[in-house]
Specification:
With 283 residues, the protein is of the alpha/beta class. It has two domains: 2-87, Nucleotidyltransferase, domain 5 (2-Layer Sandwich), CATH 3.30.420.40; 108-266, Transcription Termination Factor Rho, Rna-binding Domain, Chain A, Domain 1, CATH 1.10.720. The protein has 13 helices and ten strands. The strands form two sheets. The chain has a five-stranded mixed β-sheet with strand order 3-2-1-4-5, with helices on both faces. The radius of gyration is 20 Å and the shape is globular. The two termini are 14 Å apart.
Length: 283
């Protein structure tokens, strides 16, 4: 049996698999190595993960997570797993690698993430071969939930929305100009606050001002990121909640910029199970 992990800053989705089939799913708190130590993560895994696997023989763990961007940060996760589970093989990779392997399998392709943040890469069939830096929601992250929320707030406070929508938006989230500015400039994790506002866009996507806001943010993502890869010869695949829920707008923006959109999946786990199952069969 192998244990796969899709790790975010908020939660980690663990899936125990046997010969390509999901056997058990377990959730633990987020394990971003930028915010947590090996000892901290290990303690939680001993409490929340290890007991759930006590009757299973885990041969290998493949952890893909946010913040796993360097050997040093990957070691934080690897050490935590090694300290909490009796397993010999432990591999740690980025959430972008998870997206690429899930979406492209063993084929070359362009894989993208559109969730709270955004990211993209050209994948060579086993590893990330090229990556345009996402730069976060202030300098980049085009098309992400955080940027969509930021654009929505800006359009709202500068009176760029269809008449009546500003009041509807502020009432929907019980916000004022003062509370918005406080949440963005003074409170922690403003990217999550902004991303949490983006569902309003989906709820009102038929409105012209809303549709254009989302459409042009996706076009920015394609122009500033995907166009730096060999997009004319490869399909562009997506995973993430924003990509999944806004896929009709995303496909139109892709078509408008000359892209061939392939898979759009909400989560990477099913594809990761398939990818690692194929490796087991070839061994």
């Amino acid at each position: 049996m192998i244990l796969l992990a899709d790790g975010g800053s908020t939660k980690v989705d663990w899936c125990l698999t046997d010969k390509g089939k999901a056997v058990k799913q377990i959730f633990t708190k987020g394990a971003n190595p930028f915010f947590r130590t090996s000892g901290d993560i290990s303690g939680e895994l001993r409490r929340s993960l290890a007991p759930a696997l006590s009757d299973s023989s885990v041969e290998a763990v493949f952890f893909y997570g946010a913040g796993c961007l360097s050997p040093e940060k990957n070691e934080v996760i690897r050490a935590a797993i090694a300290d909490s589970l009796p397993v010999k093989t432990i591999e740690v990779g980025s959430d972008l690698l998870a997206a690429a392997r899930s979406l492209c399998g063993h084929d070359k392709g362009i894989a993208c993430i559109l969730g709270t943040g955004s990211n993209s890469c050209f994948y060579d069939g086993s590893a990330v071969a090229a990556n345009v830096p996402p730069l976060g929601y202030i300098l980049g992250d085009e098309g992400s939930g955080a940027v969509l929320g930021r654009l929505l707030v800006g359009a709202c406070l500068k009176n760029q929305l269809t008449p009546g929508l500003k009041e509807k938006f502020l009432d929907r989230f019980r916000l004022t100009s003062a509370t918005i500015l406080d949440s963005v400039y003074k409170q922690p994790l403003p990217n999550r606050f902004l991303a949490g506002l983006s569902p309003f866009l989906l709820e009102n996507i038929i409105d012209e001002t809303i549709y254009k806001l989302v459409f042009h943010s996706f076009k920015d993502f394609f122009i500033k990121n995907v166009m730096q890869y060999d997009y004319r010869n490869y399909e562009i695949h997506f995973t993430g909640s924003v990509a999944f829920h806004y896929q009709s707008v995303l496909r139109e923006a892709g078509e408008n910029t000359g892209m061939r959109i392939g898979k759009i999946e909400q989560l990477p786990m099913a594809g990761l199970i398939k990818y690692h199952s194929s490796l087991e069969k070839s061994d």
